[in-house]
Amino acid sequence: PGSGLSTGHIGAIFDMNYTGKGLKIAEVLPDGMLALTFPEAEAGDIITAINGEPVGEKSWFEALAMKTSRRTQFTIKHKGKESIIYMTPNGSDATLLYRRWIRQREEMVSKLSGGRVGYVHVEGMNSPSFREVYSKALGKYRSCDALIVDTRHNGGGWLHDDLATFLSGKAYIEWRPRGQYIGSEPYSKWNKASCVLMGEDNYSDASGFPYTYKTLGIGKLIGAGVPGTMTAVWWETQIDNSLVFGIPQVTGWALKEDRPLENMQIEPDIEVHNDPASRIEGKDRQLETAVAEMLKTIAK
Q: Which DSSP state fits 115?
């Protein structure tokens, strides 16, 4: 741990409304520290002591303060029986929470569309994210009739043309041995309906891609307007390599508008915002709108 106050994370979401003694678990995150160390753990279990000291009525962040990267003893009450386990808390559960967010979006789309629409999230404009999109779209969702491509909260990179090429497939032949449909060509592109979700915090190439997708007429943009930030930056280090600065070098020139993409806001075809109240309720109005639009498209 560093010199500042660090808080340990064990792959669990705690019940913030619980007023009893100990830390009551509201949800165990799959593949997290707790799930791997104590697979029996489930919602409702209570951590009663840490390093032999009763937790009492402390908040979870107070109880786990300065426990990051330290082998720690936990006493957990599961179905009335207490067990002692040892874990080394992480500094963050961000990756686990991101995967949880993805699972929630996938389940929401599947439920709202009856399994007819697929969902992929482009985490970054980079090769690992493209491989994830490619794998899910042509694997898990190959039999779906439409695809929602979510680019919200994407910090950029360089992937706009690869994604646009992948999503712009046009079916020109079908394989029907003995009258049974088994696939179409191009087999390595998405050749059915799609739409793109975007938000205010899309940045850099994550603003360049919605522009590309819309300009090429692949499908509709849904969500909130994206600030024009499509400028390539060269990152330079100094003799002291702790000093790093970026130099803007190249901005895309929009041929259709005859102007640079920088400072040109990309507007959605269907504008919808996720207000705080609906988000607290666990809703995603932008995603709901995208599902409705895709169902409308494939019904034509």
A: T
Would the pTM of this model clear 0.85, i.e. be above it?
yes
Per DSSP, the residues of 235-273 read EEE-SSTT-EEEEEEEE-EETTTTEESTT-PBPPSEE--
For residue 30, give the 3-state DSSP assignment.
coil
Give 71-76 contacts, CB < 8 A, sequence gap 24+.
72/8, 73/49, 74/10, 74/47, 74/49, 74/50, 75/47, 75/48, 75/49, 75/50, 76/38, 76/41, 76/45, 76/46, 76/47, 76/48
pLDDT digits (tens, 9 = 90+) for 156-171: 999 999 999 999 999 9
pLDDT tens, position by position, 106-121? 999 999 999 999 999 9
pLDDT digits (tens, 9 = 90+) for 68-103: 999 999 999 999 999 999 999 999 999 999 999 999
Computed over its alpha carbons, how large is the radius of gyration of the chain?
Answer: 24
Please state, in angstroms and rounded to a whole number, the distance separating the CA atoms of residues 121 and 105: 9
Q: Which two tokens stand for residue 188?
A: 């390595």
- Is 226:265 a contact under the CB 8 Å cutoff? yes
Q: Is 14 exposed, middle or buried (0-12, 13-18, 19+ CB in 10 A)?
A: buried
- How many CB atoms within 10 Å of residue 4? 6
Alpha-carbon torsion, ordered 148, 152, 158, 164, to 10 deg: 20
Paired with 14 in beta bridges are 25
32 forms bridges with which residues in the sheet?
none
